[in-house]
Write a structure and sequence with these properties.
Blueprint (H helix, E strand, L loop, with lengths): L5 E10 L2 E10 L5 E7 L7 H12 L3 E5 L15 H11 L4 H16 L4 E11 L1 H9 L5 E7 L25 E7 L7 H13 L4 E6 L15 H19 L3
Parallel strand pairs: 3-4, 3-5, 5-6, 6-7, 7-8
Antiparallel strand pairs: 1-2, 2-4
C-alpha cells in the first residue's frame, strides 16, 4: 500500500474536559488498517509533523498527531527559529508525564472508535521532545511498536517529575527502536549507552541506531537535516511498523 492515496482531517480527541486538537491522515481506500500515533517536536503539530503523519498514512496506516501542548498553548505551531525554540521549550517545561500519558491513551481510545482502525495494538513515533514522550508512551499496554527519534533527557529527567523516564523501561511492552545522532550536543553518547543498557537489562525487544548526524536529522525543515540518516531511519521505521503492526 506504499504511496497509496490518503485523506486528511483536523479532528478533536476527547480526554475528559479537555478537547485535544489532532491531525488525522488515513488511506482513502476502504478497509481496516493498523494505527500509529505521531508525537510532535517542541514546535507543535506544524507542517513537518503533518507531513510525517501523511507519509505514514501513505504506507497503509491510520496516523494521528495529537497536540501535546493543548493545555499550555492551544493551536500552537511554529518553525525552527531561535525564538521558536525558546517558546517551545517553555511550553515543554509545563508538561507532566501523567498528563502526556493520559492524552496518548485518550488518542488510542479515539482511534478505537474509527471503523478504519484495526484493533490489534498501536504504533507510536516521536521526534525531539516527542522522542522522549514516545519512550514514555511505550509503557502503555496497547503500544506494540515505538520509534523514538533523538529524545533528549530520557536518562536524566521526566516531564514534571524528578525520576528519569529511563526508570520506566521495565514497563515497556512492545518493540522499541531509538534513533540518535552522534553529533547531537543535547544527548551525550553515554546517555545513549545508558538507554541501550537498560533496554538490554530488562530484555526489551529493541534496536538502537546511531548516525553521524546532529539533533533533528530527520526533519528536512531544519538546517541539521541529514538526508542519509533520514533515509536509513525511515527504512527502519517502516520495517518496525510492518513487522509489529502488520504481521503475516
Amino acid at each position: 500500500m506504499a504511496n497509496s492515496e490518503i485523506r486528511t482531517a483536523n479532528v478533536t480527541v476527547p480526554n475528559g474536559d479537555l478537547q485535544i486538537a489532532a491531525y488525522l491522515a488515513q488511506p482513502a481506500a476502504s478497509g481496516q488498517f493498523p494505527a500509529v500515533i505521531v508525537i510532535q517536536e517542541i514546535f507543535g503539530v506544524n507542517s513537518h509533523i503533518r507531513e510525517v503523519t501523511e507519509r505514514i498514512a501513505k504506507e497503509g496506516y491510520v496516523a494521528i498527531a495529537p497536540a501535546i501542548y493543548q493545555r499550555q498553548a492551544p493551536g500552537f505551531e511554529t518553525g525552527y527559529t531561535p525564538e521558536a525554540i525558546k517558546i517551545g521549550r517553555e511550553y515543554k517545561e509545563k508538561t507532566t508525564a501523567s498528563e502526556l500519558l493520559g492524552d496518548i491513551q485518550a488518542t488510542i481510545d479515539y482511534l478505537k472508535t474509527l471503523p478504519s482502525v484495526k484493533q490489534q495494538g498501536f504504533g507510536c513515533i516521536g521526534f525531539c521532545f516527542g522522542g522522549h514522550v514516545t519512550y514514555l508512551a511505550a509503557t502503555l499496554p496497547e503500544i506494540k511498536a515505538t520509534a523514538s527519534f533523538y529524545g533528549a533527557g530520557i536518562a536524566t529527567l521526566t516531564p514534571g517529575g524528578p525520576t528519569p523516564t529511563i526508570a520506566r523501561t521495565a514497563d515497556i511492552k512492545g518493540t522499541l527502536y531509538a534513533f540518535f545522532g552522534t553529533q547531537d550536543p543535547s544527548i551525550p553518547l553515554e546517555q545513549v549507552d545508558q538507554i541501550a543498557a537498560e533496554l538490554q537489562k530488562h530484555s526489551i525487544s529493541h534496536r538502537i541506531f546511531r548516525y553521524n548526524a546532529d539533533h533533528g536529522f530527520f526533519c528536512d525543515h531544519r538546517g541539521s537535516y541529514d538526508a542519509t540518516a533520514a533515509a536509513d531511519s525511515w527504512t527502519q521505521v517502516k520495517q518496525l511498523f510492518h513487522q509489529q503492526l502488520q504481521p503475516a
